[in-house]
TrEMBL record, chain A:
Transmembrane segments: none annotated. It is found in: Endomembrane system. InterPro entries: AP_beta, AP_complex_bsu_1_2_4, ARM-like, ARM-type_fold, Clathrin/coatomer_adapt-like_N. Belongs to the adaptor complexes large subunit family. This is AP complex subunit beta. Residues 651-660 have a biased composition (Basic and acidic residues). It comes from Lachancea nothofagi CBS 11611. Adaptins are components of the adaptor complexes which link clathrin to receptors in coated vesicles. Clathrin-associated protein complexes are believed to interact with the cytoplasmic tails of membrane proteins, leading to their selection and concentration. Residues 606-697 are annotated as: Disordered. It comes from the Eukaryota. GO terms for molecular function: clathrin binding. The keyword Protein transport applies.
From TrEMBL, chain B:
Its main location: membrane. This is LANO_0G05798g1_1. It comes from Lachancea nothofagi CBS 11611. Transmembrane segments: none annotated. The lineage of its organism: Eukaryota, Fungi, Dikarya, Ascomycota, Saccharomycotina. Residues 195-465 form the MHD domain. GO terms for cellular component: clathrin adaptor complex; clathrin-coated pit; cytoplasmic vesicle membrane; plasma membrane. It is a peripheral membrane protein. Pfam families: Adap_comp_sub. It comes from the Eukaryota. GO terms for biological process: endocytosis; intracellular protein transport. Keywords: Cell membrane, Coated pit, Cytoplasmic vesicle, Endocytosis, Membrane, Protein transport, Transport.
Amino acid sequence: MSDQRIFSKYKAHEIRSELQQGNSKKHRASAIKRKNALKKIVVNLSMGFSSEMALLFPEILQYWHIDDDMEVKRICHHFLVAMAPTKSANFQEALRLVTEDFNSGNEPLRVLALRTLSSVPISTYFDECRKSVYMVLNKGSESEQLKKTALYAARKLTQMEDKQSGAIINFLHQIMENQKEKPGIRANALYVLYEIQETTKTLQTLTLDFDTCMDMLELLPALNEWDNSRLLDSLTGNYIPQNHSDAHYMIEKTIPQLQHANTSVVLNAFKFVIYLTNYVDFLMESLVKQLSASIISLLNKPPELEFLVLRNIILLLIGREKPILSVDVSYFFVEFNDPIYIKDTKLEILYLLAKEDNLSQILQELKEYATDIDIQMSRKAIRAVGNLAVKLERCVDECMNLLLELLDFEVEYIVQEIVSVFKNVLRRYPEKYEICLFKLIHFTDSVQEPESRGSMIWIITQYSDHLRNYLELFQSFTDNFLNEALEVQFSILSSVIKLFTRNPTPATEKLCIDILKCSTEKSDCPDLRDRAFMYWRLLSSAQQSQGSLIDMNAVREIVDGALPVIALNSHLDPQIVEELELNIGTIASIYLKPVGQVFRLNKPRRLPRSPAFNSNRDGIEVISENSRSHSSSLTEKSSGSRPRRKSSPVKKMEDYDRPAETINQLKLKKKTSSAAMNLTRKPSILARKLSMRKPFA
Amino acid sequence: MVSALFIYSLRGELLISKHVNNIVQKSMSEIFRIQVINNLDVRSPVLTLGSTTFHHIKSVGNLWIVAVSRSNSDSAAIWEFLYKLNALLKAYGLDSEKEMKEEFMTCYELLDVILEEGVPVDTELSNVAARMSVKPKIGIESFNSFAESIGYSTDRIIPRSRLLTRRTSSLASHDSLHEQHSNVPWRMIGIKYKKNEVFLNVNERISILVSKDGSILRSYVDGTVEATTHLSGMPICRFGLNDALSVTTPFDDGPVDNMNKKAIPKAAAGSVMLEDCKFHQCVQLDKFQNDRTINFIPPDGNFVLMKYHVRENLNLPFKITPTVTVSRSSSVDYRITIKSLFPSKLTAKDVQLRIPVPPETVNCQLSTSNGKCKFVAEESAIIWKFSKYQGLTENSLSATAFPVEDFQLNIDQWPRPPMSLTFEIMMFSNSGLVVRFFDILDKDKNYSLVKWIKYISKSGAYELRY
């Protein structure tokens, strides 16, 4: 029997017979056979055949004794945990075996047994489990591992049965505050308490006073990385600073953790510090610097973690008017081998960081991406340029020039994207048409995609006064009206109405009537028909009766009124930001959505209020190190402070130059290295290449 | 935190499924298979459906390692954990489908040790190994550096230096289950070596991006200090660098005064501005915060002591001056000089300049002053290679790329991908970082210590536009 076959589906009776075979002789070979049969059970459980495997419960109980082998025990416990939801009657018998294991001297086995006890939702198991938890945690000599298991078993007990949870919570509090207990145990006790109150609806938030919090922070150096990160997580929101100096003190205590190698520790420290900044009266400039540097250095982690960090940078940038990070744009330049999700996120950050003074640097970079071979990336870069034009009013010309420059490449997808983008730019700056209109019109025939077609139609309509041949241009869209995408049909429809109301000539009237007819008679789409009828009635009622409420001017007002100016809003609702900042590094920070929207099990988190709470978070002064004595007048001091150091001035390659000691001269003869020469060795490829060059000669 | 953990083969066969307290339905593993593994267009490393979230990574041995969580968990911890698990699986020789199918019980045992109700408790290999019944396949020594290199693309993996594979006779035993635990979570009590040795490796990777006009758009060095310690007892080590901040007062804006001066590499002259460093969990962070000294009790064997990032005052090792012109016959002319800027005593290894040519090119005329040069049509590039490159040496290349006949090259339409250079220089530091000292505090007279140090500078993305 090969091991390979362990990994396939079996019926319960097959495994049973194998187990019984193995039972007949009590020597080594049969023990291996039996073990293999047991392994098959594990495999089949993971494949999801648990109801079939449930039939083997009696066998498992039988074999529990036979082998005193750790692996067999592990399988048995695994089986029990997997069967827990069935609440089978066999569990009563199993309880005795589990307790026996727990009382054995073997530590890994005791850990297993305690976990099993806490996993089976039967009251006798709970009683046993509670007894064991108290026993383990009260005894000083037990190992750290077992105590941790006991702590998490306690968490489970509170989830399973409510009536005892009060006592358990009190007990956990005692452990946490017990100075003699090991640091790892105390930190985990705090975390378990925090988890319990987080998942139980009825419980009040865990509130820690200054001394406890201090006490806990003192533990940090003695903890391993995971305990470290959980400790910082549990303190956030549960310790409420009562005055500014407490908050400052805590920040100081936490800052060293920003240097940790584990991302989770750094982000949780970050979260705690950001949380505390809501309770301070001023911020040190050095703090901003340290926070920024520490988050930047997380960017050379594996891509998944880098992605998470980038998303959190976005959160911190959009969260406040005056971002608490000060980072240089060049960190977010895309590298060619970045995964797509990182590229996207970096582009978003570049957009957010764009200001007048760094715009040229960013545009230069975006231009590189726009001509990249990656089409997706290229499109996104062009979108970003368009958005920048809308965002930065004073730099719009620069952005538009770049777009027009890119248009010269005449690459198909670039043209599509640029035309689509210009619609937004022109809606924001209607008066800027002169520089781009005629160039854009040139591409009327090459726009293919629905969005860019719609955009082109809008541009032509909007600026028809400046285009002598607008009807001609329009022709290319109306000719094939029925084959257009629905959104293009809509824009053609509304555009012809606009053109007609603006300038009622026979030509526009004919165009208008053609399209209306076409949409009402030939189109299958009820929405399009409805809209066409609506326009039709509007027009006819305006023309027919002199006494009616509607005249042509009113119609014009309706179909061709002034459009509101668009603006891009990248800021989130302050309440959402408040909640997200309490969830730095979590899943919600990736999606940048309120926690309650994604996870119904989580309680919403809010900043607890205290006398030290700073309601106007943007009002916090950032003061430089020089003005430590800030007490007198904050504003004066901070205005005097030096502006933050920007990224160093542009360096030149020349500055690094030094004279060479050896200069090798070019050899005069040129040798030829050609593709053809390489290819002649592979005739098939050569043939293919040649045939591709002249496709249909 | 983690409600279930799945490991799939590359094709999507479920190999390991570890459920924590049964709140995740069994069908969840099926959902992941359909949504991610069988989906060719995966655009995110995280997937949330309803309130169930899947965090996934792909291991070097092509296994999918997936954590399922039911609430708003700490993503940072989950991904860090998955990478640590990945490294541990590798250490136990479980990093491919075949091995996993044979030894899956070892994997369950491992998960029992490192996860407590879905919460990671301890992933330090030396501690894990002490609790496992099976011994790891690779030594603890080589583990950590592997764990660090994992998750980067293969070209980023740092080849292990010879030095580190040398083993000293270790009397430390890890197989006893009842190993005494000390107050230091990452180090056992009672480790003994006949010869106390420390190996330090300073690995640096420099990335720059130079624009057409020679201005440097981006330049930085990512470095790691790897240490391998074979030390007896519980030594407190002290480690010092030429860190600018440890010399002057903390957070003084040192370089501001230099702003107007030319940005000349002055790193060799004195100290380095470490923008930020990250330390292994053994380093006393509060101590570093206060007086910039790095004190630690090291774990036994190999680990990454610190990672750092430097942007200012770098030593750029190469200068490349390209002139690219398009002639009327639509061929492209290249005149490139490459000059090494590091001292002439040193040599760089495996220097390779990749010069992109338009994709329509079929033929190249090449002439170089030194090195091997050839046109690789499949990559649309000219590759210029030097197996050794002396310091302070200049070489030049002249090349003409001819397109397919009758092809009118529109140079505007060629995106001009940047040229890129790869190299490796021993005993050179791009950042100018120098290890000043490494010693052991309060040691007795008999405690002798042998120290080895090595600097390796490599290229990250060393690119220039033209």
